[in-house]
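Changelog-linked ticket: manganese (II) ion example.
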Amino acid sequence: MLNFSELKKIIENHSTFLVTTHVNPDADAIGSQMALYNILKKLNKQVYAINHSPTPYYLEFLDENSAIEKYDAGKHNTIIEQCGVIIIADLNYVNRTVRMEKAIRNSSAVKVCIDHHQDPEDFFDYKFSSTEYSATGEIIYDFLKETGITDIDISTAEKIYAAIMTDTGSFRFERTSPKIHRIMAELLEIGVNPTLVYDRIYDRSRFCKIKLLGESLSGIKLNDEKNLSWMVITKEMLSRTCADEADVDGFVNFCLSIENVKIGILFFELKEGIKISFRSKGNIMVNKLAGEFGGGGHINASGARVTNKKLDACIAEVLEKAKKYLPK
Ligand code: 5GP
Ligand code: MN
């Protein structure tokens, strides 16, 4: 059990807050961050929402008043230094705030982690973190219900709904429990429109994203045993289709949708380095595999960024290392 009354006390005892989240934010990241933003605003706190990354276009509806500011050291370092509390949602390692990391580490603010990844780093003063949770949004829901610090209005409900919907893979991943559906029922009663939330996130793709998906799918590969599948997106594919980095979110899941495949990997060539996304079924711990390349994440969904390798060499090395995680 997380000690939510402690979090309530931290909030009550401070007046200025920064809420932030990880690089390349997903719906759980932005949804949780902005649910916290709403809660703090309702309590008449001074709140800043500042992120390393811009908000992907399909998540902008979760920031309906455009409160999120893109980090600018000159503009924001004083805020980061002088605010009372920094709440970091949906991440376990501060380096996942990338350009903001240094300022956060140097700040004298109380640092709070609200997250559901494994082993958050010791740096935080307070950790409200457990891998038992399907999403960071679920932790925020429990915090609200347990402490009654504010009610759940429609805007907050929509953010929590989006967070949980996406991090449970639209209610199909392992942590989709009766409790999750009860939470969803309550959020629908508050007025969340599930068709609309799904539509905003998944059914408003830009044409170029679908073209890139098509190209990525036609290049998908299987190992000889047909239990490992991988996809490659090169810089050239990205620039030719005019898609952007955020468009690639979710592509890796297609690798796992092939029969018998237990591990799916996406290699995504960035301007600098390669982002690798790992997905697995059952008890195959791809977070360990990601860890071999300096990354991490959840048992069945992890990632890493590799900066010192050529794409082909990186693919060969990862596929070789992945072998030992496959069922014998
Ligand atoms: P995705 O493949 O969707 O970008 O990331 C899946 C999960 O892997 C994320 O929720 C996050 O927990 C983790 N992850 C992704 N990239 C990194 C990384 O570079 N480092 C670490 N530690 N975790 C990552
Ligand atoms: Mn999450």
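Closing comment: Example verified and attached. The chain has 13 helices and twelve strands. The chain has a mean pLDDT of 97.
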